[in-house]
Amino acid sequence: MAHSVRRDAPELPDFSLLKRLARDQLIYLLEQLPGRKDLFIEADLMSPLDRIANVTTLKQHDVDKLYKVEHKPIVSTSDQLCFLIRPRIKTVKWICDVVNADKAFGRFRRYKIIFSPQKFYACENLLEEQGIFGDVTTDEWSFYLLPLDDDIISLELPEFFRDYFLEGDQRWVRTAGSALHLLHSVYGPFSKVYGIGRCSKMAYESWREQVEEGEQRALQAEIGNVFLIDRDVDLVTPLCSQVVYEGLVDDIFRIKCGCVEFCPDVTSSDKSIKVMLNSQDKVFNEIRNEHFSQVFGFLSQKARNLQTAYDKRSGMDIKQMKTFVSEELKGLKQEHRLLSLHIGASESMMKKKTKQDFQELLKTEHSLLEGFEIRECISYIEEHINRQVSMVESMRLLCLLSLTENGLLPKDYRSLKAQFLQSYGIEHLLTFSNLKQLGLLVEQQPGETLTVMESRVGKLVNDKTAGKLTDAFSSLAKKSNFRALGRRLNLFRTRLGNGQETVFLVQD
């Protein structure tokens, strides 16, 4: 889930305050366990934690060693163990096993569990069932929002979509409400709140309850309007191929917590490099929203400008050279390093996208979105599957076809499903079941097509032509939820123009 604020807003709220609040609370919780201690961190909390408090900061507050939670016997020799985890039953059960193993060996230690962003009753109930509720202390680290850039903050809850939309687990709804309450408490009241979707409504109600229960403070409003949008309101957008630089970097290298790890092919060395992608990276900031076809031209011009800046050194006297070295050289070297990385990333992406017939893929997606040449699109998807180009991409195209056409014709669904399982393995039967439950990949139900019309057409024309006309009649018979949604979401393009910030909360 990510909140994003308009980039063209006159002045952005200082979201770094959220980072300071989270760091101060974590330090306070760690100091409640006085003395040297080892800290065990759940894997998906390590990157967010590094953005809040690095290793040096933690060691300044009596953290001796750091370990990643790996759900196996521990090797720590410390007498005090602190666990920073998500409220997951599997992880809590592992902690219970650690404590009970120590008790079996007659070893006494002090244990503290810090749940982030909140603890659930099910976790405490498991501690009680395992007989260690009195042996551990528990607390909450209310780390709801992580600033990723000047205008982007994120909850960093990757399991939200699966838990809520697939499994019907509503436990994270209050977390979303608490995130809104944090924004409201720090940056003042919102002018208006708009929402689409059941989950958005529940998150709004949770936030309102917390506002009414809490202490009211008079603050100047820094955020004007808030839009709450359920992810399942628009499932089409994340299924479409990215065509801007930042999106392609995420597709190929995966951006995690605002960072990307460039492989040796990009860095032209024997090791990978982690790079922070935000507006502080001047090169990235200028190309992040550019169409990929324009990126190479910009990078070439940037390289020429950088060379010109370096060439200024010739002809300088000693005083000018000293000024150049102290004021400009460091920045130029940093920019040169980043430029080299982004050129390497662009070349790597170009090679991969050329191999995958990227233009043909974009053409197919465009046809699906516009509702044209559907039979040709299905043929392309079948070829994509049979060539085993990319399992994820093939599944993405199937879901896009289903969503834009309000489901697949039964014969197409059965055929495409069989081909997919033959190409990528029978183990993906569960995937089809999950996608069907989510409404991402479904069959059209009986009565949604003009079966009588189809049968009459079949008597008049040959099979090939009948197939095309059948698809056309089917499209006319269905009400397109996707295209109706597009018209509704166009309303968001209206410029609010009230001089305040606009925050979007989208469930990812």
From TrEMBL:
The keyword Transport applies. The keyword Transmembrane helix does not apply. It is found in: Late endosome membrane; Lysosome membrane. Gene3D superfamilies: 1.25.40.850, 3.40.50.1910, 3.40.50.2060, Syntaxin Binding Protein 1, Chain A, domain 2. InterPro entries: Sec-1-like_dom1 (IPR043154), Sec-1-like_dom3a (IPR043127), Sec1-like (IPR001619), Sec1-like_dom2 (IPR027482), Sec1-like_sf (IPR036045), VPS33_dom3b (IPR043155). It is a peripheral membrane protein. Keywords: Protein transport, Transport. One of its GO terms (cellular component) is lysosomal membrane. One of its GO terms (biological process) is vesicle-mediated transport. Signal peptide: none annotated. Belongs to the STXBP/unc-18/SEC1 family. PANTHER family: VESICLE PROTEIN SORTING-ASSOCIATED. This is VPS33B late endosome and lysosome associated.
